[in-house]
Design a protein that fits this description.
four-stranded mixed sheet, 6 strands, two-stranded parallel ribbon, 3 helices, 117 residues, alpha/beta, single chain, 2 domains
Length: 117
């Protein structure tokens, strides 16, 4: 019985450390996305898209240490506020969550942002 359990655990452990590939049978990283290279196929990776108003509705405690490094795309800044975690959201663009900023309160920091109009 011990040998059977050991065999089952050894077999399932290899799946726990598997790499995932999209459009590839041989992933080279934890997540490997390979383009299809077809002229009529749209390629790209879309992060979650939110307005500043939608992010404001989520409050200041939803994102914390476990979300450190999360990436979002802010589509517009017309609504919402620039308080607390949203202090540096001044234009549309890509933002990353830095959980250690502002004495571990966290802030959304610009990766690539457009100036407000």
């Amino acid at each position: 019985m011990k040998k059977l359990m050991s065999l089952i655990l050894a077999g399932t452990a290899s799946f726990a450390f598997a790499q995932v590939g999209i459009n590839t049978d041989n992933p080279k990283a934890t997540l490997d996305i390979t383009a299809k290279k077809n002229a009529v196929v749209i390629e790209g990776l879309l992060p979650p898209r939110l307005t500043r108003a939608e992010l404001t509705e989520k409050g200041n405690t939803l994102y914390g240490a476990e979300q450190d490094g999360a990436i979002i795309y802010i589509t517009d800044i017309v609504g919402g506020d620039k308080l607390s975690q949203r202090e540096y959201i001044e234009g549309k663009g890509l933002y990353i969550f830095d959980a250690e900023a502002a004495n571990n309160e966290g802030r959304w920091m610009c990766i690539y942002c457009y100036a407000p109009l």
